């Protein structure tokens, strides 16, 4: 009895450690019994793990996403907004893998920014300046799958900055 309550306290790390079919079934049952809140905790854990992921974490996260999709094939039952959540998280993880494999660790220092624009539409350019590499990599990975036709996204390292404050 006590074990089942412990599991709900830290859904994601317990999920990540599930090894046996029995443990998976018990976890699945608990999350389904708890409903929205339990599933939300799993999604938040997966999202945070993707955000924090370093190069070596990607294969384990890919396996974790596959397992989550297998245990919860119909996330829409928890919320209509989650109908495509596995595809969305998978696309974000794939974009993060692409960034990490494209930029060697030695080149990740310094200030980074992410810029998005659609030159065909009159709208503001969106810019996230002053980021460290891992925050910039996650923002790029998060927004990349959502790009509309003719929009672009750029992940850039800043070499030189001149900044003034108005008075």
Indicate the topology.
Blueprint lengths: L1 H8 L1 H7 L3 H14 L1 H17 L5 H14 L13 H18 L8 E7 L8 E6 L1 H11 L8 E7 L9
Antiparallel strand pairs: 1-2, 1-3
Helix pairs in contact: 2-4, 3-4, 5-6, 6-7
Could you characterize what this model shows?
A hairpin with an 8-residue loop joins strand 1 and strand 2. The termini are far apart. The chain is 53% helix and 12% strand. The chain has a 3-stranded antiparallel sheet with strand order 2-1-3, with helices on one face. It contains 7 helices and 3 strands; from the N terminus they run ααααααββαβ. Mean pLDDT is 90; it is low at 1-9.
Mean pLDDT: 90
Shape: elongated
Order of helices and strands: HHHHHHEEHE
Count of helix runs: 7
- The value of Rg in angstroms is 19 Å
How many DSSP-defined strands? Answer: 3
Query: Span between N and C termini?
Result: 63 Å
């Amino acid at each position: 009895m006590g074990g089942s309550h412990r599991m709900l306290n830290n859904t994601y790390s317990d999920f990540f450690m599930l090894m046996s079919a029995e443990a998976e079934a018990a976890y699945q049952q608990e999350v389904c019994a708890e409903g929205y809140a339990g599933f939300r905790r799993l999604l938040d854990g997966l999202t945070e793990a993707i955000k924090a992921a370093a190069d070596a974490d990607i294969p384990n996260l890919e396996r974790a996403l596959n397992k989550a999709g297998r245990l919860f094939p119909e996330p829409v039952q928890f919320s209509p907004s989650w109908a495509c959540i596995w595809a969305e998280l998978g696309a974000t993880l794939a974009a993060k893998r692409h960034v990490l494999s494209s930029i060697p660790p030695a080149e990740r220092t310094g200030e980074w920014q992410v810029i998005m624009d659609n030159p065909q539409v009159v709208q503001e350019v969106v810019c996230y300046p002053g980021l460290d590499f891992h925050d910039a990599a996650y923002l790029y990975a998060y927004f990349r799958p959502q790009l509309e036709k003719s929009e672009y996204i750029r992940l850039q390292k800043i070499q030189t900055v001149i900044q003034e404050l108005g008075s």
